[in-house]
Amino acid sequence: MKSKEEILNSFNTTGNDGLPEISAPDLLKAMETYKEQYAEAAFNAARQIKGDVNEFATYGDYAMHLQQETQQQQQNRDEFTEAITLAANSVLPHFIPHDRSAQEFSFNLTMQGKSYIAFYKKDADGYWQLDTWAAAV
Question: Under a CB-based contact definition with an 8 Å cutoff, are residues 4 and 34 in contact?
């Protein structure tokens, strides 16, 4: 395993004055290299075992699994956002403020046994558009 100094030195260049220097993008690359190196070491030290075999053969397999899991969670959130938008838009007429000068408002709705808050804003044409939503606390 490389030390911090070895990683930094691999990205160093020599300036006009002959002293070593590192650019900001190269410093970020060095930091990312150092982080990945220690993440892989931590993975190897704490590898999950499923039955009698390792669940992930390499750190790369584990990283790819995490990336796929993150993408799946994002897709699920996008699909749920579509469902919330559909539900909120279907009851929207019941909550539109009487004050025509209002530019935003919110209301609570319940889906799948959980409460959410729908936040609406008026667009440039004067129509109410779902701006965002959040779980109610």
Answer: yes
Positive or negative, the Cα torsion across 84, 85, 86, 92?
positive
pLDDT at 19: 85
For 43, counting Cβ atoms within 10 Å of its Cβ (0-12 exposed, 13-18 middle, 19+ buried), the class is: middle
Taking the C-alpha atoms of residue 90 and residue 83, their distance in angstroms, rounded to an integer, is: 11
d(CA 71, CA 67): 6
Mean pLDDT of all residues in 77-104:
93
pLDDT of residue 51: 63
pTM across the whole model: 0.51
